[in-house]
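Cross-check.
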Amino acid sequence: MKAKAALTALVLSAGVVLVAPASAQDHAVTQAAVNTYRASNGAPGAAAVVREQAGMWGVTSGTTALGQNRPFGAGDRIRAGSLTKPFTAAIVLQLVAEGHVDLDASVETYLPGVVRGNGYDGDLISVRQLLNHTSGVNEYLWLGGGINPIEHLRPHTLAEVAGWGLAQPPLFAPGAGQQYSNTNFILAGMIIERVTGNSYDQELAGRITGPLGLTGTYLPTPGDKSLPPGHVRGYVGRFLYVDFTELIEPSVGLSGGGLVTTGADATRFFQALMAGEVVPPAQLAEMLEPAAGGPVNGYGLGLERFPLPCGGEAWGHYGLWPGYQSVAAATTDGRSAFVAANVINNIGGESDSVGGGNSVHRGVTVTTVLCDQG
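Predicted model, tokenized:
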């Protein structure tokens, strides 16, 4: 582990070579946006992958590993962070379509006794409120909430992680506000397991990654911090970097942020989701309904709305994990995009929350990319 935490020093010069596939020559707007995105974050590398009806293309800037000339590829794996949430929401909505879950039923219905005490009453919180962050359930990741940082280095269960959030008082009464909280989607993962009798990763494979052929997307086994060959190295810092690729325990994320994915897979998933191939039309409409009184952009059920500068809108999500930041979104006309960089500048000060400061560069970049017609 000491090798993983070793400090790597690099001063980024103005002469960094930008490597892009030949298909990117017709997408100067996207290349410029990705270059700017990488520079604004001080990232060793960044990339965009775009999927259209006619096929897939991408651009890359910088490198996936310090000290090496390794441009991003569409099949390179990253730790996806909260890009996991739309996958989790889609599984819940499939269960809704099958009659196994009622969005407006209480959490207590599916997780008796779990959300109880410390100001919480699971009878008053609905499944819908978990998925659109209006439950008032507190965030489990705040280090200031009494969680020992060492907890991020050993394996965990969904119930244990949810307990970290529930040990902190509610943010507000259910339905009285909207606040992004990863604990909501940990509880959603617990509902999936309780209703189906299977593990979250089994349901993920059987319902989404298997049917869609997402061969680069999976939930790591708790305790396994490694990534398979063909992955992006993830760093924390700016100019001076620490390699976090295999440092943080993956089961800290689970159904709220634990997935590993690729640009090719993320664009395939969001394209299929918006095309009605993942959940039926009635449930997709529920996912695209923003919570009343939420942020300007709107957050539905595990999806955020992205207004496009060229007109119209896309739906997707941000992703953040120590060493990685990403965003993916798709329009209803079959166009999807994924943008990622292999750095975050600090662990505690950046957020995947809707409208969070770190999300601004990613949001602008992905909407620019979605509007680039070449």
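The CA atoms of residues 77 and 228 lie 8 Å apart. The chain has one domain: 73-359. Passed to J.P. for a second look.
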